[in-house]
Amino acid sequence: MTTRATGDPTHDAMRVAGFWQPRAQGATHRILVGACLSFHELGYHGASTRAIAQRAQLSPGTIYTHFANKEDLFFRIVLDSHAASLESLTQAVALGSDPAERLRLFMAAYASWHAEWSVIARPVHHDLQVLTDDHFQKVVDVRRATIAVLDEILEAGIEQGVFSIADLPGTRRLLMSACIDVCRWYVEGGERSPSSIGLQYSALALKFVGS
Questions:
Q1: One GO molecular function term (predicted)?
Q2: Smallest Cα–Cα separation from 105: which of 128, 82, 88?
Q3: Which of 73, 88, 174, 179 could pair with 110 as two cysteines, CB 3.0-4.6 Å apart?
Q4: Distance of alpha carbon 111 from alpha carbon 199, whole angstroms
C-alpha cells in the first residue's frame, strides 16, 4: 500500500481536480479525480472500484461505462501524468540557450513537478508494475522521450566541454531518480515549496556534472 504523506485532503482534492480540468469532463473527470485521491490514500491494490466510485459520488457501474476496469483507469492516470510531466519539461528546456542553463531548467521543472503533483505522482511511480504489457509499453514510450530530452542536454554539455561526465547513462539515471523521488517525501504546505526544491535540485545537478 502507498504510504500517504500528511497533507490537507480538501486541498489535495482541489489540486487534483485542477490537474484534470483541461484533460477530462463530466463523469470522466469525477472518476479520474476520485481515482487519484483513492490511489493516493489507499494504494492501487487497496482502492476498490467501489471506493473510487464513492469518492467520485457516482455509482460503481458508472466507472465501467468510461473505463474497462481499474487497471485501465490507472493507466489513463499514469499516461496522462507522464505526458504532462514531459510537456512541462520541454517547455522549460526550450527557454535555455546553453547546456548548463537547459540542465538547470530541466531539473527545476522535473523536481518541482513531482512536488507540485505528488498526490498523483506518488501512486503512479509506486504501482507502475500493475499495468498490462501493452499499457506499460505506451508509458515507456513517453519515458523514453523524457530520457531523450535529458540525454541531449548532457551530450551537448560533454561535447562543448561544459560537463565532466564519465558515465552518461548513470548520471542521467541518478538525476531523474532524484527528481522522481521528490513525490515520495514531499508534503503539501510544508517548509519547502515546489519551486524551492526545483532550485535546489538544479543547483546540485550542475555541481554533479562539474559545470
A1: DNA-binding transcription factor activity
A2: 88
A3: 179
A4: 9
- Hunting for cell 489535495 — which residue is that? 12
190-201 as b/e: b if 16+ CB within 10 A:
eeeebeebbbeb
First to last CA, the chain: 40
Q: Could you say which residues of the chain have pLDDT below 70?
A: 1-8
* CA distances for 193 relative to 67, 84, 182, 186, angstroms: 35, 20, 11, 9
- Tell me, what's the pLDDT at 3? 42
The set of residues, in sequence order, having a beta carbon less than 8 Å from that of 165 and lying 6+ positions away, is 154, 157, 158, 171, 209, 210
pLDDT at 2: 43
Amino acid at 117: W
For residue 191, the model assigns a pLDDT of: 84
State the burial class of residue 103 (Cβ atoms within 10 Å of its Cβ: 0-12, 13-18, 19+): buried
User: At residue 186, what is the residue type?
Assistant: Y
- Tracing cell 513517453 back to the chain, one arrives at 142
How far is it, in rounded angstroms, from Cα 27 to Cα 29? 5
Q: What is the pLDDT of residue 7?
A: 59
Task: Quote the pTM value.
Answer: 0.92
Each residue of 86-121: pLDDT tens digit? 999 999 999 999 999 999 999 999 999 999 999 999
